[in-house]
User: Which sequence fits this backbone?
């Protein structure tokens, strides 16, 4: 049976998120950082921790497609089916945001990156939060993403508001990022 954090740990993580915090948690391939995508200051803090430009945009991760319906409802049935067929799993799709997410999430792009995770800890956190969260690797921009919690703690120390326990999944690399309309693979 997959490891799912205890309700108290999930409550501590969602309390940190609600207070504008940055939370670390394991994902399919590496440790990640999450925050409330609607909180500009939380996103700014996460970007500062990573040394990442807001122009690049961020991924929204969810526990189920229903948490991303506000972005997917404008897609054709065929495109929704294509996306749904890859989830939950390691595929991130670039879909048009149509102004439905703030600029600090989509950056300089007309699309936003979205994914439904297959990792039990990420799914539990998104379900406890009751919506999608920012998801990005827990490393400085350009550095190797960590696969162990001690690496996350060594690098970020007390600058993180909470770390959910768990193990990184078996994927050898972060999710593939595909452009929904062009079919181009942006990251593999």
Assistant:
């Amino acid at each position: 049976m997959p490891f799912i954090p205890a309700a108290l740990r999930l409550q501590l993580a969602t309390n940190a998120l609600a207070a504008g915090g940055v939370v670390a948690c394991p994902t399919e391939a590496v440790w990640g950082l999450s925050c409330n995508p609607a909180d500009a200051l939380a996103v700014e803090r996460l970007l500062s921790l990573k040394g990442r430009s807001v122009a690049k945009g961020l991924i929204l991760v969810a526990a189920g497609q229903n948490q991303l319906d506000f972005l997917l409802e404008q897609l054709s049935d065929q495109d929704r089916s294509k996306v749904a067929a890859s989830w939950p799993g390691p595929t991130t799709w670039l879909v048009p945001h149509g102004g439905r997410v703030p600029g600090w999430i989509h950056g300089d792009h007309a699309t936003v990156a979205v994914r439904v995770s297959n990792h039990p800890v990420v799914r539990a956190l998104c379900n406890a939060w009751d919506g999608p969260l920012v998801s990005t690797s827990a490393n400085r921009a350009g550095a190797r993403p960590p696969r162990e919690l001690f690496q996350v703690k060594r690098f970020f120390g007390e600058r993180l508001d909470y770390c959910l326990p768990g193990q990184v999944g078996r994927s050898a690399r972060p999710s593939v990022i595909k452009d929904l309309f062009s079919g181009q693979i942006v990251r593999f």
About this structure: The first strand starts at residue 23 and ends at 26.
